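User: Could you walk me through two proteins back to back? I'd like the raw sequence and the structure tokens for each, with a short line separating them so I can tell where one ends and the next begins.

Assistant: Of course. Protein one, sequence then structure:
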Amino acid sequence: MDLSQELLARLDSLRAAMAGLPAAEGLRYLAEEFSGNIAFSSSLGIEDQLITHHIFEQELPIRVFTLDTGRLFNESYTLLHKTNQRYRKKIEVYFPRHEAVEQLVNEKGPMSFYNSIDDRKQCCYIRKVEPLNRALQGVQVWVTGIRSEQSGARQELQLLEWDEAHQLIKYNPLLHYTLDEVWAAVKALHIPYNPLHDKGFVSIGCAPCTRAIAEGEDFRAGRWWWEDNSKKECGLHAR
């Protein structure tokens, strides 16, 4: 039995052992079970800041990394700096391959993602998906900040699930949290967060592809707003 088969075989027992555990305890449990082989990908959003707090405050052996696409808001870079200072830890940063970015921009220009869904997904792949694949090499458990209410496609997810694309276990500790619950925890624990959240940005990605949303708009309305809502995924969490 190879490693991926062993991980898949453990999934049901892990689900049973972790049933009902809050996020902080679930992270601690998996950190003990998979020490050195578990990583958290942070987009520096409000959910991810809460998870980062639980990891750093408990001194858990979980790698925390983020993807710098080269197109982030200045506020996101400032938050990365503040977070490192607050916890006296370093969030690892993965960049896209510069050769791929240079080729894309030289061939299609700096705003090719507005041209078509295919061009946008190509940009996302180069700037996000490929760096993520490198960051997850050797990882057995991938922690994410996904919440089920973020989009219709995420409402069928489970706290622990098998990621076929990366051949690993994915843990979504905040899956059943509401946005209000996340905010309450962040404020109670005085966790630093991106000030763009206070300006109507509920989901913060690359600057050219993210806008604030109006009251009553769908959660994902601020991401790639020129596209059909049903296709608004960048490929990081493709199923």
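----
Protein two, same layout:
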Amino acid sequence: MVTPPKQSPATQAITAGRAHCGKSLAPALWASSTWESDGLDDANRRATSIRHNDFYSRYANPTVEQFEHAVAELEGAEAALAFGSGMGAIAATVFALCGTGSHIVAQRQLYAGTLAFLQGPCQRMGIDVTFIDVSTPGAFAEAVIPGRTMLVIAESPSNPRLELADLDELGGIRGPFTLVDSTFATPLGQQPLTHGVDISLHSATKGIAGHNDATLGVIAGDRDLLDDIWAYAVLHGSTPSPFDALNALRGIRTLGVRTRQQNESARSVAVMLADHPMVSVVHYPGLSEHPQHALASLQLLQYGTVLSFEVADRAAAQRFLASVQIARCATSLGGPETLVCHPATTTHASLTLDEQAATGVTDGLIRLSIGLEETVDILADIEQALAAQP
């Protein structure tokens, strides 16, 4: 029997998640919330099975299952598990693995929603959290309390300054489970599981779905671990929509070509901004001057579609956002449109000024998610918006 050649990630995005499609090139939409059973014994079998996909859609759904299979293949994982949002994935995973008296180690440089969840609901539930600086070598392992730490959480690249966690270092930690929020990278840009990390997590709303028309979260890892998380997730109720799963599957089919174009444009924008007199610093791991560029070159397959940069102050940031014409003022990322946002007043607005400062969010920080417009048009739009500065 001839072993098929190993597929490139972009090709795998086309072929993944088709086991139950039959001859159809497009996945079927199973909109049903519930399925009929053939009597008591069959009903009991469905109700007590793990992730049975034709019982009740809070437990599993065939369309959602196809999306999960596709993500698992892209991540090189045994299994994947979808949720109604990225925060649903984080909350369900944390509460599935941790309880009163547990300890979590997390980096300080996190999406504000994750940070608020760890500082609020987790601590109210008696889960202690230690925050570390992701750029400090060995900080994750040093903060682990043997016998108490249940989970180590990283976000790499981080939102919004694109700091990186050393995935080999993280995967080498023994004892607690390790989790990487890999949303900015997508499965084509980074493979946390190959570094020994236990769980790779995505807000699939972003680059994976890629068209601003689906709200989903997903985790990938070992099947037994994900089945344990599923047992809690059924009770947590962050149920993914089959409609959104269908849209995300469509997004996966073009993930390779989309991210290739967006990465090329993002690097061009980063290079231009790095030389612009109105910009003090650019945060993009693909630039040689990025403090973690060497690490990025080792563990990122693509440098990414998102970057951030600093202008003088909040007034300068406001003028920039008011002046862009192609880029749109919105707080998501990974879609076909170039989006610009001011983290201090949007994605990280829930943080105090001290918390914003600790995570590197300044009044002059602007985040760009590069879209699929022609690179020359994106560059021209940013140039003219910067020219609006006094």
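The first strand starts at residue 79 and ends at 83.

Let me know if you want the two compared in more detail.
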